[in-house]
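The authors assume throughout that readers already know how a fold can be written as discrete tokens. The format is easy to grasp once an entry is in front of the reader. For illustration, here is how one protein appears when written out as sequence plus structure tokens:
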Amino acid sequence: MIQLPKSILGIIAAVFVLFLVSPRFYQSVPAGHVAVATLFGEVQFKHFGEGLHIPVNPLYEWHLFDVRQKTHSETSSVPSQDQLQTKIDVSVQYRLVSSDTPRILQETGTFENVRSVHIVPKLRSLIREQGKTIKRAEDFFLEATQTTLQTALLEGLKDYLTPKGVEVEAVLIRDISLPPFITKAIEAKKEREQEVEKQKAELERFTTEQEQIVAAAEAEKNAAAAQAEKRRLLADAQAYEITKINDAIGRNPNYVKLQALKSLEAISKDPAAKVYFIDGDSPAPLPLMHLGDAK
């Protein structure tokens, strides 16, 4: 076994310690970032994820990229087909693709370069292009228009930015500001519509009340008709009864004698009554009752 001089061992140990403690021999990447190395200006097409990387070439130059989700907000004046300018606030949610960061560094540069060179110009261009498809400025307030605008912007940005190493996740319309005179006209229109709705509600209430009054009157009319019908039926019954009695009397003379006898019987029980008989030879003498004190 070869025995190395202690001086050489000391040098080796010093170099090893220096290797371990020197920041040139390791690279620490913070959370949510990736690192891309260059060697004498040449991009190394291998990205380094978050964490500690040992050993690394001490001659590397390091470039960090934040790959967490980012939001870019843009306010643009958009002309519609009626030549009116509408201000639209749009937010784009995106992130850099980790595996594409070496190519991003080579073709575009830093994260700020990606935003200023690719995202902002393309977003502004797409917004203006979509504005030309809108006939009237007030149509921007329509839900269908906003949905169509968001979809078109999202698809347009994805088609353009995906090859650039940018993943677009969402496009959100935050606010729409129409020209002031259109805003006033829309507010006036809404007030008129609200007044019309109020009048319609009042008309419906009045119609309901009138229908209730008519229904009550109809019920009273029906009740009166029913009462009149009841009285008519009673009168018909009484007339029928009288007719039947008269018919019975006409067919049976003894009925009159029976009624005369009943009357005489009732009169005889009254001590204050005086009875006279007219035409005693009549087969059916009727009593003539004189009430009062005897003279």
In short: The radius of gyration is 57 Å. The longest strand covers residues 85-96.
